[in-house]
């Protein structure tokens, strides 16, 4: 009998979501002869049973389209907010799954989605997740769809900022996305030839950044471009952040954990404007006028680049093969030129951060890029 498979997109959007829907959908419908049910707005669609039939025509013309035709949200299956109160919606979701007589559920998303997928898999649903994020921080996969496109956008922005920084003899700080991991800032910073790259994994000091800029000035370069990840911190902020995070990790009771989490949120909030603070400090330390450009959501929007379209199509088709083989409770990871299923129990809750000895970090040091340490 033909299978019925549900599909949804969850978490922050990323270029390539529609390309995966198409890659999975075309393989499911044309190669395997299955029926496809799209859930609207991620987990919300599962909870409220909001669906759309995904037939062949719905999958045409979406390869190049940004965003997601299914919509998305950032809900948690076990702490779903109803009138501001967290509720466990796993039983409700299981009912929706049964009602639609699904054989499998395919979830496209990042780290939060991998955790949701694991919870649903533990509850007995046949779940497969696919690695989406411009941050490239999902554990267990070589790369994620969305990352290559965001790199292109961010590199182009750094290129453009170079000419205006040069013309005005300014420091320009380009803030890139990446709240925990610095892959995007490091990759685009290297590709765009940023003079200094600041990432969350390597706490910086203002003095170190200023020293790199002054050394450039002595060599005759009266401008500098600094690529800063939104999650980068100076050593003082880093110590405050670590201390707040340790409080959460060591909290002895649920109440203490709640209080520690609220404190951590406040610390993160207070550190949010760090790129503007750094700009003021660098202006004072070097005498060069400083400006900030926040790239923000531009990095997540628009057409996926060819590398992401190819990756998305390969991952989507591979996910359909795993459904056919009855391999569930896994993330479809990109591995070299191929793909491989990685158990969600190994992936969920882990982040792939930039190792301090990573080739990109060492390359940056060799070509004289300041890393702020
Ligand atoms: O996960 C990707 C990401 O773009 C992060 O880099 C960023 O901090 C976050 O999403 C912000 O997304 P939103 O504002 O949609 O929650």
Characterise the protein shown here.
The chain has a seven-stranded mixed sheet, with helices on both faces. It has helices at 17-31, 43-48, 90-99, 111-122, 147-168, 183-191, 206-218, 235-250, 254-270, 274-286, 306-325, 344-347, 359-366; strands at 4-9, 35-39, 51-53, 80-82, 85-87, 104-109, 127-131, 171-176, 196-198, 224-229, 290-294, 330-335, 338-343. It is an alpha/beta fold and 373 residues long. Helix 1 crosses helix 11, helix 7 (206-218) crosses helix 10 and helix 8 packs antiparallel against helix 9 (254-270). It folds into two domains: 4-145 and 304-347, Rossmann fold (3-Layer(aba) Sandwich), CATH 3.40.50; 150-300 and 355-366, Phosphofructokinase domain (Rossmann fold), CATH 3.40.50. Bound molecules: 6-O-phosphono-beta-D-fructofuranose. 6-O-phosphono-beta-D-fructofuranose binds next to loops.
What's the story with the biggest beta sheet? 7 strands, mixed
Helical stretch tally? 13
> Poorly predicted ranges (pLDDT <50, ≥5 residues)?
none
Distance between the termini: 60 Å
Helix proportion: 40-55%
Strand content: 15-25%
- Kindly name the structural category: alpha/beta
Summarize the helix and strand pattern as letters. Answer: EHEHEEEHEHEHEHEHEHHHEHEEHH
CATH class category label of the largest domain: Alpha Beta
- What is the fold named in CATH at topology level of the largest domain? Rossmann fold
Which sequence of strands runs across the widest sheet?
3-2-1-6-7-12-13
Ligand names: 6-O-phosphono-beta-D-fructofuranose
Please tally the β strands and state the result: 13
Provide the CATH architecture of the largest domain: 3-Layer(aba) Sandwich
Mean pLDDT metric: 97
Principal-axes shape call: globular
Number of domains: 2
Alpha carbon gyration radius: 22 Å
């Amino acid at each position: 009998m033909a299978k019925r498979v549900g599909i949804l997109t969850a978490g922050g959007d990323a270029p390539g979501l529609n390309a995966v829907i198409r890659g999975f959908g075309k393989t499911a419908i044309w190669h395997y002869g299955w029926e496809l049910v799209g859930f609207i707005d991620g987990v919300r669609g599962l909870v409220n049973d909001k669906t759309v039939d995904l037939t062949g025509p719905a999958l045409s013309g979406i390869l190049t389209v940004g965003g997601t035709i299914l919509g998305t949200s950032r809900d948690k299956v076990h702490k779903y907010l109803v009138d501001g109160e967290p509720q466990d919606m796993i039983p409700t979701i299981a009912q929706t799954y049964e009602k639609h007589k699904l054989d499998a559920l395919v979830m496209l998303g990042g780290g939060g989605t991998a955790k949701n997928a694991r919870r649903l898999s533990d509850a007995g649903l046949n779940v497969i997740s696919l690695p989406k994020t411009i941050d490239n921080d999902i554990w267990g996969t070589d790369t994620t769809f969305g990352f290559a496109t965001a790199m292109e956008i961010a590199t182009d922005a750094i290129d453009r900022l170079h000419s205006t920084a040069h013309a005005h003899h300014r420091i320009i700080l380009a803030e890139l996305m990446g709240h925990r991991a610095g892959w995007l800032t490091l990759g685009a910073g290297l590709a765009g030839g940023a003079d200094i790259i600041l990432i969350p994994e390597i706490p910086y000091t203002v003095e170190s950044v200023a020293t790199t800029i002054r050394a450039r000035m002595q060599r005759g370069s009266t401008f500098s471009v600094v690529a800063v990840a939104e999650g980068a911190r100076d050593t003082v902020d880093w110590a405050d952040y670590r201390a707040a995070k340790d409080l959460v990790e060591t909290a002895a009771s649920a109440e203490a954990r709640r209080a520690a989490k609220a404190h951590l949120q406040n610390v993160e909030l207070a550190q949010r404007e760090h790129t503007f603070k750094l700009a003021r400090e660098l202006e004072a330390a070097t005498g060069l006028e400083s400006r900030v450009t926040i790239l923000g959501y531009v990095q997540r929007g628009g057409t996926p680049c060819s590398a992401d379209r190819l990756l998305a199509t390969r991952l989507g088709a591979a996910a359909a093969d795993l459904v056919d083989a009855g391999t569930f409770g896994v993330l479809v990871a990109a591995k070299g030129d191929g793909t491989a299923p990685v158990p969600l129990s190994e992936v969920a809750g882990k982040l792939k951060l930039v190792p301090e000895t990573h080739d990109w970090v060492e390359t940056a040091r060799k070509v004289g890029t300041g890393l702020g340490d």
